[in-house]
Amino acid sequence: MMQNVPTGGVGIFAGTSFKEGQTVESTLAIPVTIEACSINTHLSHRAILLRYVFGLNETWDALALGYSMVYSHSENPSIRNFWQSRVDSDSLYLAWRAERDIPAGQEIYDTYGGPKWFQENGIPYEPIAEPQYAKSGVYEYPCISSKVVVAPDDTVVAARRIAQGEIIEISRVLIIAEATASRGTPLSKYAWKWLDPVVEDNQVPLAAVLLGNGALYQAAPESTQHVNAIFEWFDDTTLPVDHRKCHETLMIKFTASRDIMYGERIYIYLRVSPESNERFVPPGFQYPCSDPQAAQEDREL
Q1: What domains can be seen in the chain, in order of their start residue?
Q2: Which of 172, 147, 133, 165 is nearest to 52 (CA)?
Q3: Which end of the chain is more exposed for a tag (fewer CB within 10 A), N or C?
């Protein structure tokens, strides 16, 4: 689960206990060229992707779709990452293993490599003396969800019955340069063309990537009757000020639009409904970067 942390922003806290050596998270990793990762969005409130990827070789990095970029830094990390292969998949995965026992409620810490990383990225370095624990009464964002699992074909299916109106997951949104996810690149399958609702005249075309399982939810077939989940901006303005997320942390909420049965694949609708002409995409999101029809329609406008 995610929760606000004293240093600002959010951190990941253990929703259950983990034993030393146990896998805490395993997520799909998308190859991105180092050159593409270096493209600057020229927006001070948006990230440069190079800060958040993991090195593969001299040419390629990899973006992990899970919550690796939300883990707080510590000189005494409680997890370590490792590359993971699966016999039932040709995809690349990055996983995190507990370095010691992690009790439920304790914040999970990775390492960014020390103070040098913070200095290079212009971020104040505040070492953590003692592990933090989730605070009672502070809003929790359900992120790494036990309600769904990722199947061997990298689709998302229900791990149990999910009732209509129930939150499935809350995903963080990473804004990057659109050129990083241009058509034909591995990342284009998982990114959206993005029109910033705040900055009307973007200096650089932008794209959005949903973390967690957010990028893996499948597009429904042409008829909306297959849709069983909707996604929309997570609005926390109704929460007390101290419970709100960092203003730079964009989050999307996935909610069951009807009862979803165990083992059922999760479907969202990505375009305009032919039945009602209604948009099923939150403001800011335009269309998947890999959608050639939508891109052609955009050019014709």
Answers
A1: 2-300 (2.170.270.10)
A2: 172
A3: C
